[in-house]
Amino acid sequence: MSAALITPDWIAVDWGTTNLRAWAMGADGRVLAHAESDDGMGKLAREGYEPALLRLIGGWLEGRPPVIACGMVGSRQGWCEAPYRAVPCLALDTLRTVTAPTSDPRLSVSIIPGLKQAQPADVMRGEETQIAGALRLMPNYDGVFCLPGTHSKWVHVSAGEVVSFQTFMTGELFALLSEASVLRHGMQGEGWDDAAFETAVSDAISRPERIAARLFALRAEGLIAGLTPAAARARLSGLLIGTELAGAKPYWLGQRVTLIGAEKLSAAYASALALQGIKAERLPATECTLAGLALLSPQTLAAQ
Amino acid sequence: MSAALITPDWIAVDWGTTNLRAWAMGADGRVLAHAESDDGMGKLAREGYEPALLRLIGGWLEGRPPVIACGMVGSRQGWCEAPYRAVPCLALDTLRTVTAPTSDPRLSVSIIPGLKQAQPADVMRGEETQIAGALRLMPNYDGVFCLPGTHSKWVHVSAGEVVSFQTFMTGELFALLSEASVLRHGMQGEGWDDAAFETAVSDAISRPERIAARLFALRAEGLIAGLTPAAARARLSGLLIGTELAGAKPYWLGQRVTLIGAEKLSAAYASALALQGIKAERLPATECTLAGLALLSPQTLAAQ
């Protein structure tokens, strides 16, 4: 019964491939409640989206608050396609959302489109909202955002627009290699070794072409040189992040850099960048998501 | 009943992580019969090895032929550990095999040890036998062997000895990325595109640090630029093989190079090397394995 008492001004939704996260937002911008489930895009057919959302936030809909959503929910395989907008452009255009088809009369869902870049070909969905939010938190920011994650993004922002961006598969490589490859045998547990991480970052930046050999060396050192799981895990992370930094050098060299991400992952990127002489600023990912989604809240729209 | 009529002089066994392959060999070196199963190391407990072998070759044991085995069967997680020999050393030392514990009186199984290298740390199991075989097929060979596969090996051989080697996780990365990553969506089918492969090899060799970004570009081009599955698959292969060649340059630059591998994979490596001006020779993998195992056949041992 207590859930039924939540009457948000609007509802923020971040709907990705593996998770669905929602926040009941007050008129003053405060979070009244948070809920999440594993009803990500990956396990939903088109007709499954509305029921999944109702399961999670059905108790918040008394006052028919608008729902603002970002992420893979707007992809071609999602609830309803919100076609990519082409950079250079504003991270978020309040006039370019797409309304999802719903049958529950209490539901009104707007989906924010992702961004695409023709050359080199690249796409994002969800990060554009974080960038829009970051730009509200850091007005007049000119420089680079790095959004580490499954598919890490480096984004050049100037005069309020996304100028260009590049995606690196670093997080997905880490997951595949540490969980599904031969390297998994030497990576049990949650241990970490800062020195191993830092050495690996430097090794990868100075000789990125050795990556596939350095990966196997983790296995070999585990077998014949007593490499610990903590060192192996940190070194794998350092090798992959270092390789990313080597490839992303045109983005960070001589630039103002701000990391938008989860606490631990952002800390790892910050320490890797510090080794290159870059003192990165940091913003929490969820705060940026909510600040971006709030661009479409009733209050913000009314104030425009 | 016909299987019971096979009375080999000896039995060759290549026992890897995923497969068990056996050949009934005649005294004249001919293959009398071949059999294989998926009873690889990965699915066997220690007590499962002898039954798995008997299931496969029980019909060949009338004359108590010796069984000579190489591969992961000799690892710590295998049937019985055949400790690594340290390079530099002969690829195969006929005095350093390990006898597996058996209870069937018809069985006598010798396991060939793998090789290890202290610095940079590296290991092989099975490839040492192929190298020993290749050196019988190409006497006095001085140069480099490349054994492409799940864990590709580059091996420097001089004066009949393995001097040094380096392993690249190229094949495992290809399998993980094409089957288990977000890239799998754009890679259905078996198509191939030679031009896409060659461009990707060159791109990777010239800018190996961009690998994680180029991987995601396969996904992005599939979404917004109509990249075909055949081109995506060939480009993924080219990017990974090109990155390997960039890292293995000290092995192949200015060297005589011979590929030992499966037909299609060796052809891909040969064409990638040709782009670098290297005309690689080629040997079939199975022929090398059998020639190496035959160093321990009764006839060869008797002739020594």
Give a written overview of the molecule.
2 copies of one chain form a homodimer. By secondary structure, the first copy, chain A, is α/β, with parallel strands linked by helices. Chain A has 2 domains: 2-125, 2-keto-3-deoxy-galactonokinase, substrate binding domain (Nucleotidyltransferase, domain 5); 168-285, 2-Layer Sandwich (Nucleotidyltransferase, domain 5), CATH 3.30.420. In chain A, 36% of the residues lie in helices and 22% in strands. Chain A has helices at residues 49-57, 127-137, 170-180, 194-206, 211-224, 229-247, 249-252, 263-275, 285-293, 298-303; strands at residues 10-15, 20-25, 31-37, 67-70, 85-86, 89-90, 98-99, 109-111, 115-117, 122-124, 143-147, 152-158, 161-168, 257-261, 281-284. In chain A, the strands form 3 sheets. In chain A, strands 3-2-1-4-8-7 form a 6-stranded mixed sheet, with helices on both faces. The first copy, chain A, has a 6-stranded mixed sheet with strand order 6-13-12-11-14-15, with helices on both faces. In chain A, α5 packs antiparallel against α6 (229-247). The mean pLDDT of chain A is 96. At the A-B interface, β13, α3, α5 and α6 of A face β13, α3, α5 and α6 of B.
- Strand % of chain A is 15-25%
Chain pair with largest interface: A-B, 46 and 45 residues
Order of helices and strands of chain A: EEEHEEEEEEEHEEEHHHHHEHEHH
Estimated helix fraction of chain A: 25-40%
Classification by helices and strands of chain A: alpha/beta
Distance between the termini of chain A: 36 Å
Topology-level CATH name of the largest domain in chain A: Nucleotidyltransferase, domain 5
Number of domains of chain A: 2
What is the level-2 CATH architecture name of the largest domain in chain A? Answer: 2-Layer Sandwich
